[in-house]
Design brief:
By secondary structure, the chain is mostly beta strands. Helix content is 12%, strand content 35%.
């Protein structure tokens, strides 16, 4: 069917949005190669603060920024993602983003042979299992059921690793907090990162200025 198109002016830049067949898709506001850099905290310490072992890490955690920098932590298996638990007592040692935020985006390939697999899941997409933890302003840790900004950063991580391009991924998040969410990630041949998903309207209104 026809697509609706709009743009959002955000602090990170101009975000293009399209609506097609009940799926809203945004294009991450990044031109050229997104910013990635290593985490200063050793891999084993990051794993331990999540209740995991160093052997659970697929590769070193990385700061990735396609509009909002977040710590991405690749894990080997969905079971490791399920076991991950950032203890609030560890927040004093957890690294902070450039904006002072403390987050952890843990993810793993659903396929047994990892991201190297050409096998695809539902809709012809490579399936990824993910969770997103963040420190609350009043203290403690919460878990987000669906995180579009982290999904966009996953696209940058995917490109930086020299993985196949173009790529289509299906990210499953929120299952462990009984709020399942599915996001769709596409990395295009011209290195555009697109994140989409279906939304549920919970309200509407008019602001008069």
């Amino acid at each position: 069917g026809s697509a609706d198109v709009l743009t959002l002016e955000c602090k990170a830049g101009i975000v293009a949005m399209t609506l097609s067949q009940d799926v809203w898709t945004l294009t991450a506001p990044t031109a050229g190669a997104p910013a990635l850099h290593a985490c200063a905290v050793p891999d084993a310490e990051i794993a331990a603060m999540l209740g995991l072992g160093a052997e659970d890490l697929l590769s070193s955690p990385m700061w990735v920024n396609t509009g909002s920098d977040q710590l991405l932590i690749p894990l080997r298996t969905p079971a490791a993602v399920q076991r991950a638990a950032l203890d609030s007592k560890q927040l004093g040692n957890w690294p902070r983003s450039s904006l002072g935020r403390q987050t952890a985006y843990v993810f793993a390939p659903a396929a047994a042979d990892g991201f190297a697999s050409e096998a695809t899941g539902q809709g012809g997409r490579t399936e990824v299992i993910a969770r997103y933890f963040f420190a609350k302003q009043g203290g403690g840790i919460a878990e987000d059921p669906g995180t579009g900004s982290a999904c966009a950063n996953l696209g940058a991580w995917w490109m930086a690793g020299g993985r196949r391009n173009p790529a289509s991924l299906r990210i499953v998040q929120g299952q462990q907090i009984q709020r399942p969410c599915t996001l769709y990630l596409d990395v295009t041949p011209d290195q555009r990162i697109r994140v989409g998903g279906r939304v549920v309207e919970i309200g509407r209104g008019v602001i008069e200025i």
